[in-house]
UniProtKB/TrEMBL annotation:
InterPro entries: DNA/RNA_pol_sf, Rev_trsase/Diguanyl_cyclase, RNA-dir_DNA_polymerase, RT_dom. It comes from Araneus ventricosus. One of its GO terms (biological process) is DNA biosynthetic process. This is Retrovirus-related Pol polyprotein from transposon 17.6. Residues 7-131 form the Reverse transcriptase domain. It comes from the Eukaryota.
Length: 131
């Protein structure tokens, strides 16, 4: 996984920053059929397996990060993800508007949802990764 300081350094030197908080990050990633049995549990009504990656799995964070890196690969020039937080950074406002639309299109195509109440758009300064 990336170091938080690396991500902050890349984002921090831009004029316009947007931060997207993905809703229940890991829970938006489908569980691969070959590992579903690791998510199995039994209740009074029978056995179950998760169809999505549940919170608390040992490798959920790193698996989600790899998924985000792959999904956002075409946006690398202006976008970084750290687990379920995505930051975009630009010097130019018109570019910012154009590429944020493209980013949302990519997220939609990947069935990923952002929590708009926690998102910030086109700011000069944002709180990102707790800093």
């Amino acid at each position: 996984m990336k170091l938080v300081t690396e991500v902050l350094h890349e984002v921090g030197k831009s004029s316009f920053i947007s931060v997207l908080d993905l809703t229940k990050g890991c829970c938006q990633i489908p569980t691969k059929p070959e590992v579903k049995h690791y998510t199995a549990f039994v209740t009074h009504s029978g056995p179950y397996q998760w169809n999505i990656m549940p919170f608390g799995m040992k490798k959920a964070g790193s698996t989600f990060q790899r998924s985000m890196d792959k999904i956002l690969s075409k946006h690398r020039r202006y976008c970084r993800a750290y687990i379920d937080v995505v930051a975009t950074f630009f010097e130019n406002w018109e570019e910012h508007k154009k590429y944020i639309r493209e980013l949302f299109q990519t997220l939609q195509e990947s069935n990923l949802n952002a929590n708009l109440e926690k998102c910030e758009f086109g700011k000069k300064e944002v709180k990102f990764l707790g800093m």
